[in-house]
Amino acid sequence: xxxxxxxxxxxxxxxxxxxxxxxxxxxxxxxxxxxxxxxxxxxxxxxxxxxxxxxxxxxxxxxxxxxxxxxxxxxxxxxxxxxxxxxxxxxxxxxxxxxxxxxxxxxxxxxxxxxxxxxxxxxxxxxxxxxxxxxxxxxxxxxxxxxxxxxxxxxxxxxxxxxxxxxxxxxxxxxxxxxxxxxxxxxxxxxxxxxxxxxxxxxxxxxxxxxxxxxxxxxxxxxxxxxxxxxxxxxxxxxxxxxxxxxxxxxxxxxxxxxxxxxxxxxxxxxxxxxxxxxxxxxxxxxxxxxxxxxxxxxxxxxxxxxxxxxxxxxxxxxxxxxxxxxxxxxxxxxxxxxxxxxxxxxxxxxxxxxxxxxxxxxxxxxxxxxxxxxxxxxxxxxxxxxxxxxx
Length: 392
Description:
CATH architecture: Alpha-Beta Barrel
Largest sheet: 8 strands, parallel, barrel
CATH superfamily: Glycosidases
Radius of gyration: 21 Å
Order of helices and strands: HHEHEHHEHEHHEHHEHHEEEHEHH
Distance between the termini: 42 Å
């Protein structure tokens, strides 16, 4: 959708940028809902940049989405000094963004050192706005015509706002801190909206999301958390739920109740169809505090319960944590938040995703062959839920 008539120079720049990234065919741009992420993995198996290696493994599974960390890493990527430079000029990030993924979930943290925890000053708000605006404009121009969608967000909001779940952490949620986070998120949303308004583009989308991770203590105990203190005051496009507090021992009705509670706090967005709360993280470790925690089979079984429940509820994405494990036990052992372990062994949860993508792509291709169009979300979601019901 174009916000204003093309000017000749603008058109040429947009055309040149869009030529660099190919338009995705229908079967690749379809949202298959399930995905995983590559953030802070503790091992790898090639000499490639870790991000590129992970993206290629995820793509080989035939996923259509990719979540990774678009934040400053001066030791690893010293040549980047802004989000645009990281996305545009750093070769590994650019290579992954150019890959045939249709949906990217990105932790986008500006290089400008802004802070909102003692209040969000006008100077910091301007720095945040400018860098986020520039990133959105770059993504819209560079990937116009490709069918890609970018979701720009951040890590767990409750951990940023309050820390732990104990009642003593309630006191960390001072009015100044809560208002600072509200102002921060509103600034980021405004930057995204303004850049979309100002930048000519077509067949590409950028959304802004925020993430929470402790809504259950508000729902069940009425205590202050991000969901009831911040979310009602920020018109974000989407919410990511780092869902360990309800998926560690997954019960379908509990999962759906928490998702509905989060959804009830959202500001309406008539321009967005469907549910706006997605699972940004869920997963099951092999070790916990030095002791065996979940077997690979149990890891998969619990995941199937979570996947089925969140599919039925309507989550637009369900993202498993993660491809390679990112946490170590005190004795140096891998905790086992993985699809592929440190020896390169693909776990049952990897096969669950790989086989699902195989089934899902076939379902979509058959629908396109039969009707000339991909299935509607409701049609696909119903079929996917039945598929996973049969796997439990």
